[in-house]
Specification:
This protein has 308 residues and is an all-alpha fold. It has a domain of 118 residues. It is 79% helix and 0% strand. α5 packs across α11, α6 runs antiparallel to α8 and α8 runs antiparallel to α15. It is globular. The termini are far apart. Keywords: Cell membrane, Membrane, Transmembrane, Transmembrane helix. It is a multi-pass membrane protein. It holds the Pfam family EamA. This is Drug/metabolite transporter (DMT)-like permease.
Amino acid sequence: MKYKKMLSMNLQAYIILCITTAIWGGNSVAGKMAVGHVSPMTLTTSRWVIACLVLLVFAAPQVKRDMPAIAKNWLLLLGYGTVGFTAFNAFLYSALQYTSAINAVIEQAGIPMVIFLMNFALFRTAVSWAQIAGFTLTLFGVGLTASHGNPATLLSLQLNQGDALMMAAVLVYAGYTVALRWKPAIHWKSLIAVSAFGALLSSLPLLVWEIGQGNFIFPDTEGWMIVAYAGLLPSLVSQILYVRGVELIGPNRAGLFINTIPIFGMLLSILLIGETLETFHMIAMALVLVGIAVAERGRPKPAEAQAA
């Protein structure tokens, strides 16, 4: 009976987490579909307007209960929204004006490697040779994608503008993730709600800048559908599902599913927007996934990390 219950919980968690990462992978595809239908900063701002309106109802009790801690850490919490939510999505949606959704999702797979490097540089986090080897493979995969199969362009620094913007998005989100070590002890709903509010506030100057540059595109029907998707699914539903997945099988096992985001993103790019899968994409994806697998299996055990 206990074994059957465990199997049921595992299956439920796998389904939930696959839906979660498919939604996150779909965010890049939505950004590509938005080109010509809604401008990048308009999409970014509108997304957080929707998320904040929903969170006013959904997270209000937790925010009220956590208000003393929020008041003490308001600048940090708003900063999470500014960096992890607004800056990342602004770079992502801008990048997709110039590069493919397939490129964008593969390049996002470099985020774990950058997090690892930042943690090592700033906090001397324990590292194993397997991790170094794994992240080196990931780096080659991301580099191959960013150079569109021609690594010589990296040496000459002739990156496609969209891929350069994606590199900035990767750096920004890695920095946000590393900074989460300082988050206060508040409910996850409160964390998302205040961060989303910070994202909304920080996106407004970008919207004003976009209008001033003459690049503003008011959403058409398809644009509003994309805004609704971005505001409800990646911003809210996926966060709720991910928390449930972590509750079922724990953070370490749940975290591995994040590595499937490029796979879902690639499949959705081919199915929904007809992007072409090139040979270098497949090689890069193999390098990224093998690299992450090697790094995960070879990570220092807790005792080793403590000793280091």
